[in-house]
Design a protein that fits this description.
The protein is α+β, with helices and mostly antiparallel strands. It contains six helices and seven strands. Strands 1, 2, 3, 4, 5, 6 and 7 form a seven-stranded mixed sheet that branches. A hairpin with a 3-residue loop joins strand 6 and strand 7. The radius of gyration is 24 Å and the shape is flat. The N and C termini lie far apart (49 Å). Bound molecules: adenosine-5'-diphosphate. The site of adenosine-5'-diphosphate has 23 residues, from helix 4 and helix 6.
């Protein structure tokens, strides 16, 4: 179609250019905001364990070892726990920055979910025992369980979800893993009867660094990055995750994978 008004055409072009520029600037601004928030969160998350370690070591240096060897021992192990927390934090930050920058590629392959789930359960058995939680894989009836996904990344998804169900479980609680066969997907459900998440916080648990007050107060190691890593990995697979939870009763996380 030939236009009859060149001035109007130019105006339209300028308007479009201005709109595109504004979109570009908005995107940059939100990236910048994101970067600032990320850095401020990181430094905050580092401070807590670092100050704790400093405190314990100061006390030890000031003669606690001679004065109260038992307490000194306790402080040493607390310092070690906080060091652990720092190293997990660094590992998670490394992981999430790779995921968010798109640096990490997904290597699709066909594998059997049954085997992987059993492997992950085995790797967490000791931790589960320590927290008095039973990890139960409800693998009957047997269903089609071959999927097309990145095996190592899905291992991490399973490990993060199962380890949360152990961390936030109740004594003598159970975590149940069940698979459901859908039309062209497998649905994986991980259900615990632990402390649960209140309604207000539930929409936020996939955010970076978000931890409920309750889990912070529980003195359980965690970076608040586990679930956002899980979400990123599943999004990179074009799959989804959802959660249902009731405070004091438990939580159920469900995600899908492509059936093969
Ligand atoms: P982290 O466990 O390191 O704190 P996550 O990103 O894995 O971080 O989880 C974010 C928060 O969501 C946790 O701090 C906890 O408050 C809540 N949460 C996650 N999984 C569960 C669960 N199974 N039961 C209760 N709360 C949970």
């Amino acid at each position: 179609q030939v236009s009859s008004d060149p001035i109007r055409d130019v105006q339209k072009e300028v308007r479009e250019w201005a709109r595109d520029k504004k979109l570009e600037i908005d995107a940059l601004k939100s990236q910048e905001k994101y970067r600032r928030e990320f850095l401020s969160n990181i430094s905050h998350e580092f401070k807590t364990p670092l100050f704790a370690i400093q405190g314990y070591l100061d006390a030890l240096q000031e003669g606690l070892i001679e004065e109260d060897p038992q307490l000194a021992n306790k402080f040493l192990s607390k310092a070690a726990n906080n060091l652990d927390r720092l190293s997990y934090l660094i590992k998670d930050i490394d992981e999430i920055s790779k995921l968010e920058s798109g640096e990490l590629s997904i290597n699709f392959q066909q594998f059997d979910l049954y085997t992987l789930i059993n492997e992950v359960i085995e790797s967490l058995e000791l931790k589960a025992k320590k927290h008095k939680i039973k990890l139960y894989f409800n693998d009957k009836p047997k269903i089609h369980s071959m999927v097309n996904a990145d095996r190592e990344k899905i291992r991490q998804v399973l490990a993060n979800l199962l380890s949360n169900s152990v961390k936030y479980g109740r004594e003598n609680g159970t975590t149940e893993i069940t698979l459901f066969e859908l039309h062209d997907q497998i649905l994986i459900e991980i259900s615990d009867n632990g402390i649960g998440i209140d309604e207000e916080n539930l929409p936020r648990i996939f955010e970076r660094f978000f931890r409920t007050e309750k889990s912070r107060a529980r003195d359980i190691g965690g970076s608040g990055l586990g679930l956002s890593i899980v979400k990123h990995i599943l999004e990179a697979h074009q799959q989804t995750i959802s959660v249902q939870s009731k405070e004091g009763e438990g939580s159920t996380f469900s995600f899908t994978l492509e059936k093969k």
